[in-house]
Design a protein that fits this description.
Blueprint lengths: L7 H38 L9 H23 L2 H7 E8 L9 H14 E3 L3 E9 L2 E8 L4 E4 L2 E4 L2 E10 L2 E11 L7
Parallel strand pairs: 1-8
Antiparallel strand pairs: 2-5, 3-4, 4-7, 5-6, 7-8
Length: 188
């Protein structure tokens, strides 16, 4: 059996060293985890500030948010078919440096072409969600550090978007989706 003859001072030094080492490991682990999750955490937390305290308005804001969040998920999945389901029958998309996509065929061709060259891992930040009767306006942006794979290369993603939704037959549908490039990434 081993015996240790340690003074009270030696035990205190050992305890302090262990605490520092443990704290350092936990702190380093927390930093790594925060860096890995930062885009998702920012997207999740910045949604909370503009929802109305009025339960009826809040419910409509969340319903509009759900459509845009679903769009984000489908964009990341590269799913043209399901994205088209989010658009109203007369929905329109206007992208930077592209013609207006004003028919279902235009939208399908645009998303199909986009997903052949680009892979997304987007987490929208939300600048606002405003509801005016059967119309909702949702403004989003891409967080600082957001990138996409375009032609196999990682490219900084500087977009900010506006979604105009219309409630049709009880469901929110995208009536207009427009985005532009923001020269200062991460600002709404």
């Amino acid at each position: 059996m081993l015996q240790f003859d340690m003074s009270k001072h030696s035990l205190e030094v050992l305890a302090m060293t262990l605490k520092r080492t443990l704290f350092g490991a936990v702190f380093a682990g927390a930093i790594v985890l925060a860096n890995l999750l930062s885009t998702r955490l920012l997207a999740a937390t910045d949604n909370l500030t503009f929802f109305s305290p009025d339960p009826a308005i809040n419910a409509q804001q969340h319903a509009a948010y759900d459509v845009v969040h679903r769009y984000e998920q489908l964009l990341n999945a590269g799913d043209t078919v399901e994205i088209l389901e989010l658009f109203a029958p007369d929905g329109v998309a206007e992208w930077n440096d592209k013609p207006t996509f004003s028919t279902r065929d235009d939208l399908k061709a645009a998303y199909d072409a986009l997903f052949k060259t680009s892979k997304f891992s987007t987490a929208f930040g939300y600048a606002s969600i405003d509801v005016y009767g059967d119309t909702a306006v949702v403004r989003t942006y891409h967080h600082k550090g957001a990138t996409i794979l375009e032609g196999g290369k990682e490219v900084v993603d500087l977009n900010r978007e506006v979604f105009v939704l219309r409630r049709q037959e009880g469901q929110w549908k995208i009536k207009l989706y427009i985005f532009n490039t923001n020269p200062v990434q991460g600002e709404g």
